[in-house]
Amino acid sequence: MMVIRMVEALQFEFMRNALLAGAIASIICGVIGSLIVVNRLVFLSGGIAHSAYGGIGLAFFFGWPYMMGAIGFSFVAAMLMAAVSIKSKQRADTIIGVMWAVGMAFGILLLDMTPGYNVDLMSYLFGSILSVPRSDLITMAIVGILIFILVFYFFQDLLVMSYDEEFAIVRGVPV
């Protein structure tokens, strides 16, 4: 009886989209997540992801597409974090934590200052898998394929860089 109800739920497009989005995201996160954990970059990736909320606030404040604001802000935050991490390896965690907090605070302030009525903007922070449109599924699939191609092509360099940075430098891998 329970199986029949589960199959009946798949007659709705939002349920099919949610299931497909979960499958695609789990594959992408499995590939990228293993590289992030092996290279001990979990805090860095968390800082970039949470500072993206500043880009969402910026995009809503100026009326831009929210995805472009989040991507642009994340890119700038990642470049700042990378520059500080390369210059001073001892202080990298400090700047990452600062960027994490500043990005979130900046986003919340801008969302609060945006004129007019804003429909549940906290959903951009937490999200809902049931609201994934088909266009986002296509974007996720393209990004997933691109990630697979890049990881497959650079797998040996990523492997060497992940386990022995000095050996990777000797091999000519740009670490």
What is the secondary structure topology, with strand pairs?
Blueprint: H1 2-9, H2 13-38, H3 42-62, H4 66-87, H5 92-113, H6 123-126, H7 134-153, H8 155-163, H9 165-170
Helix pairs in contact: 2-7, 3-4, 3-5, 4-5
The domain count comes to 1
User: Pairing-aware structural class of the strands and helices?
Assistant: mainly alpha
**Per the principal axes of the C-alpha atoms, what is the gross shape?**
flat
Distance between the termini: 55 Å
Report the average pLDDT across residues.
86
Oligomer: single chain
Q: Strand count, sense and closure of the main sheet?
A: none
Rg (C-alpha, Å): 19 Å
Percent of residues in helices: over 70%
Uncertain spans: none
β-strand number:
0
Q: List SSEs in N-to-C order.
A: HHHHHHHHH
The fraction of residues assigned to DSSP E strands is: under 5%
